[in-house]
Every structure is written in C-alpha cells, then in structure tokens.
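User: quick one - fold this with fe (ii) ion bound?
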Amino acid sequence: MAKYTLPDLPYAYDALQSYISKEIMTLHHNNNHQASMAAVCLWTGHINHSLFWKNLAPTNSPTTKLSPGPLKDAIDRDFGSVQAMIKEVNGATAALQGSVWGWLVSHAVIIGIDIWEHAYYLDYKNVKVNYLHAIWHVMNFEEAEPRYKAAL
Ligand SMILES: [Fe+2]
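Assistant: Sure. Structure tokens for the protein plus fe (ii) ion:
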C-alpha cells in the first residue's frame, strides 16, 4: 500500500477563526487526515482533504474574495451571481445526509467542502447550515481558479 504524507496546512490552525475554530482545525487535520491515510481504501478521503485544506484561506485574506476572471464569469453565467451560487451549493449540500462532501463541479472539482460531522460539530453542533454559511468566508477562490481554468 502506498504511503501518503500529511501535507502541512498552508496557514496556521487558528487562521480560520472565527469561522472554523483552532480546535477543529487541529483535530481535523491531525487526527482525521492521518487516520484516513492509515486506512485502506480511503484514498479519496486523502485527496478530498488535501484539496479541502488548500481550498480554505485565512479569515479576511484577499484570496477569499472572488476577483474578476474566468471562474467569476462562469459562476455569474451559470448561477447569476456568487451569492446565488453559494445559496444553491449550500442548499444542495445541506440536504445531503451522512458523511459526505459538497462539490462545486465544472468538468472537474473546483471547490470541495467537507461536510462530515467532524468538520463542524465542535463549532456548529448539528446545525450544518450555519457551518455552510461560514465556510464561504474562508473559501480560497484564488486557489480554486486555476483548477477551473485547467478544466476548460
Ligand atoms: Fe474531514
């Protein structure tokens, strides 16, 4: 079985506060990611988490604002606006049950959201919809854009 290394977070554990607590980030990154790498057949869990960590950015980071460009154009075209896209993704994601992931997909995964309970329970208890509202404040759109461009 291949050995997967735990990628460092590209920011500090407390960088996403007040949307995602340091406690969740520490537990989620260290325990869950390592546990999923130790388990057989959780390769997708490893890929998903690797994308998810990169996909987030520190609170108030300029990369959390979607700048004009191909990704914004596509979102405006397909959803009407970024706010409408967030509403639609959150609505679809909130309806999912169990341990799953929410994705913004356009030929390839552009943005992934971990909606396993371990990703939000300490901060949001069972109110997944509040977590889904919060997560977009620390979404790294700048990091997502190259994936969109590559998928064109
Ligand atoms: Fe997770």
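One thing worth noting: The domain at 22-151 is CATH 3.55.40.20 (minor pseudopilin epsh fold).
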